[in-house]
Design a protein that fits this description.
By secondary structure, the protein is of the alpha/beta class. The N and C termini lie far apart (42 Å).
Length: 127
Amino acid sequence: MATVELNKENFESVITGNSMVIVDFWAPWCAPCRAFAPTFEAASEQHADVVFAKVNTEEEQEIAGAFNIRSIPTLMVFREQVVLYAEAGALPPQMLEDVVKQAKAVDMDEVHREIAAQQSAQGGAAG
């Protein structure tokens, strides 16, 4: 599956409409971003069950700002609308593969329980 270009019109629907989305925050002028692009594209071909998406931080400054993107490339892994991984820097192919495998292996029921417990402890959960 080819990568999906995200913008403020489709960002939320892509994140909420898919169980796992890996987002590459990049810019056209960024040499490491351009070098990482073929690795990201190749990974998207190997994992048809995962949506691989890109955010051009020059065109989508609002999204980049919302996620506090300070350096690029930055990779974020969303699973069931939860950020499991957020790291700046281009990854070599094997490290990207490891990130994908680890994200797929996460017990999301446990993650949602932990989030609920944190919200409850902060008084943010409705009873």
